[in-house]
Amino acid sequence: MQSAKSLSLSIFLTAFHFAAKLIGGYITNSLALVSDAWHLLTDLLSLIISWWAIKKAVQPPNAWATYGFHRVGILAALVNNVSLVAVSFYILYQAYLRFLHPETIETAGMSILAIVGIIISAAIVYLIHDGAKNNLNMRSVWLHFAGETCASIGVLAGGVVIYFTHWYWIDTFLSGILGLTILRGALIMLKDIIIILLEGIPDNLSLQEITACLNQLPDVTAARDIHVWCLAEEQIALSAHIEIASDIPLSQTEPLLKQIKEMLAGTFHITHVNIQFELHECRDCHHV
Ligand SMILES: [Zn+2]
Ligand SMILES: [Zn+2]
Ligand SMILES: [Zn+2]
User: Fold this and answer.
1) What is the separation of C-alpha 165 from the centre of its chain, rounded to a whole number of angstroms?
2) Which residues form the Cation efflux protein cytoplasmic domain (predicted)?
3) Ligand 1 centre and the CA of 182: distance in Å?
């Protein structure tokens, strides 16, 4: 539960960060800071949801949730990313308004808050680093805060440039870039989430390849009605009908079943396998 611990610490840091940026943003009149504050609110939400999902995902299956709770993490990621899309549109809209009506900014305060942002985001990146190695949900949080650190460095650089040049448009420009970056990241992650929720085959697998590999196994006459889907990230399931040549006793199908499972796990990382042996194409068999 190391991940849950580092996430809960990150939640406190982000809550403080949000309050500081929001108040500071209004005092200094920096749009980049205010935009960042609203986006930090969704960060806070996403950290809380991720923390809850990590606790929930380890619960064993029960009579109601026969697969367990792996998909709680996917639902968490869906909520996170939809809220990020909304935030990015809000930021872009605010940048557009500021572009139409430019305003001056208090650069010293802006730079100090940017430094606070760099320190807190970098601390979270460090905290989450270990958990991100083997968990995609944690890795997306890690990636997000790595981006955050870069955004704060950008705001700091902007503050310094504005201090010397009085090019106030840089602030608007920076928040526009921030909005687009968040939007891009959220859309990329949404694509993966939608593939999982629609039970599509993972991006890196091909049904043709899997079918060919199954058909190549000795004793397999034909592999049919193959379904491949993700229970959650990195938890791939497959079900298939396998036609065999002769009417052998059940005990003799065991070596073949073992071979099928080893091939699927070794070649395709498919670990949740359900096979129905048959002598003829059955009525339920469908073809893609
Ligand atoms: Zn963020
Ligand atoms: Zn089917
Ligand atoms: Zn069948």
Assistant:
1) 39
2) 202-278
3) 8
